[in-house]
Write a structure and sequence with these properties.
It contains five helices and 28 strands. By secondary structure, the protein is mostly beta strands. The strands form seven sheets. The protein has a four-stranded antiparallel beta sheet, with no helix packed on it. Strands 4-5-6-7 form a four-stranded antiparallel beta sheet, with no helix packed on it. The longest helix has 15 residues, at 9-23. The protein has helices at residues 9-23, 137-141, 218-221, 225-228, 232-235; strands spanning 49-55, 66-71, 81-87, 94-99, 105-110, 116-120, 129-134, 143-152, 155-163, 172-177, 182-187, 201-204, 209-212, 241-246, 251-257, 262-267, 275-280, 285-291, 297-304, 314-319, 325-330, 335-340, 348-354, 362-364, 370-374, 391-397, 402-409, 417-424.
Length: 445
């Protein structure tokens, strides 16, 4: 056991570096291809549950944001049905969530404020419980709109989208231990070509790098989309950068120009690969971040998604575990596309299907045989009328065709707007940690 004395923020950060140094050689693994490599792997085959973080809608059910559990085990009598829901008692633009490294808890939050909700999924994976609300993010850091929750050994790194000062896009990251105690904050760079904006973050421990992307602030993303796009000045306030960080030092090393709001980041999980991809929402482009022959990291545009003139608005992406394929969802045309990444320098679209009138998040199983899609982007950006479908849809994928096998209508069920997903397993009841998960060190004191 290694003892860490983390009484001051600087020494706490130093303790994090020691943890990361121990974990840097661990292989990437997981049962969703966007999970942190530090998360315990507990789903060996078919997942049992999909947890859906859901935006509350006034007048629909209790109107609150909630975590909804859907049974997705084909052998279950409840297959494709909602079996549990737990509300947070308020509405705050529920958006993303993430597992802790031991997979006992899910952390989730909303973009309208700074609260972070902690759900216990270990005691009963079918029925998560809200056990803690972390309310000091704004006070400790000046950041609001917690977006990405990325598990590190014994820690959670949170990427925020906005700030308390002007609700703009200049923001940063916050580090907490798994108990919910604040440790340190890291501002997004605003010098050397940086715009200070944030969105997603993903780690490649073998290369000792953290990669971040950028979006916009609350003053923009809480506005109605139709109103926003007619405001030329507001449209200038979107992120156009990605940042490569030294993971152990938590310091920015290089800033890339990536126009058009680069969103989700996905590292190739194939052993030996040294690249990641992202999709730029406003320009409808795929970008590659990769080491060149001299070992220098470079970013370049490598493919076009749909017809950029029609603004398909690529939102979520999901990479296959062998790094050879990429799913891309585009919100405006409701399409799901598959790109062949055999040559990451030249991705080629090989499949597309309209999977909804509006689609946002996409998650695939580790074996690549199942794909899950949800509908909601943001409360004020979702479509109106008949186009405002709110759903979780499950598909099978045989390498040639997506076949829908179930649907949960979130409006009909009076749940709200279906957004982010995580996969769950009954195995969590008997195994809180997998044997091959990273070592946990002493909690911060």
């Amino acid at each position: 056991m290694i003892s860490l004395n983390l009484r001051r923020a600087s020494s706490k950060a130093a303790g994090l570096l020691a943890i990361l140094a121990l974990s840097a050689v661990l292989p990437a693994f997981g049962d969703e291809t966007c999970n942190s490599p530090y998360i315990a792997k507990l789903i060996k085959g078919q997942e049992d549950y999909v947890y859906v973080w859901t935006l509350g809608v006034e007048g629909l059910g209790d109107g609150s944001d909630k975590l909804v559990t859907v049974d997705v085990s084909p052998r279950s009598k409840n297959y494709g049905k909602v079996i549990h829901q737990v509300s947070v008692g308020s509405r705050g633009e529920a958006h993303h969530m993430g597992f802790t490294d031991d997979r006992r808890h899910i952390w989730a939050g909303g973009l309208a404020g700074s609260e972070v909700y902690v759900f216990d999924i270990a005691a009963n994976p079918a029925k998560p419980r809200l056990v803690k609300t972390i309310a000091d993010l704004g006070d400790k850091t000046g950041y609001i709109g917690p977006h990405t929750y990325y598990a590190l050994p014994g820690r959670m790194l949170i990427q925020a989208l906005s700030n308390t000062r002007d609700k703009g896009g200049v923001t940063g990251m916050a580090l907490y231990n798994n108990k919910g105690d604040f440790i340190a904050s890291y501002p997004m760079p605003v010098e050397g070509g940086g715009d200070g904006y944030g969105y997603d973050l993903q780690v490649n421990p073998r290369k000792n790098v953290l990669l971040t992307s950028s979006f916009t602030g609350a003053a923009n993303y809480l506005r109605p989309l139709g109103e926003l796009v007619k405001d030329p000045e507001a449209m200038k306030r979107f992120g156009n950068t990605m940042v490569l960080w030294d993971l152990k030092a938590m310091k920015p090393k290089k800033i890339f120009s990536v126009p058009g709001a680069p969103l989700e980041i996905r590292w190739s999980l194939k052993p030996g690969d040294n690249w990641a991809v992202t999709a730029a929402a406003l320009t409808s482009k795929l970008w590659l971040v990769k080491q060149d022959a001299q070992g220098e990291w470079q970013a370049k545009e490598v493919a076009t998604i749909g017809d950029p003139a029609k603004i398909p608005l690529p939102v979520d992406i999901s990479i296959t575990r062998d790094g050879k394929g990429l799913w891309v969802n585009t919100f405006m045309d409701g399409k799901t596309r598959y790109f062949d990444l055999s040559d990451p320098e030249a991705p080629k679209q090989t499949y597309e299907k309209q999977t909804g009138r509006q689609v946002n998040m996409i998650s695939q199983s580790w074996d690549g045989k199942r794909v899950y899609i949800t509908s909601s982007l943001l409360a004020n950006w979702d479509k109106a009328g008949a186009d405002n479908e709110q759903f979780l849809r499950g598909f099978t994928w045989d390498g040639k065709e997506l076949k829908q096998v179930f649907e949960v209508d979130f409006t009909k069920e009076k749940l709200g707007r279906a957004h982010h997903m995580k996969l769950g397993s009954k195995a969590l009841r008997s195994a809180y940690r997998a044997p091959d998960s990273p070592p946990k060190l002493a909690s911060a004191r």
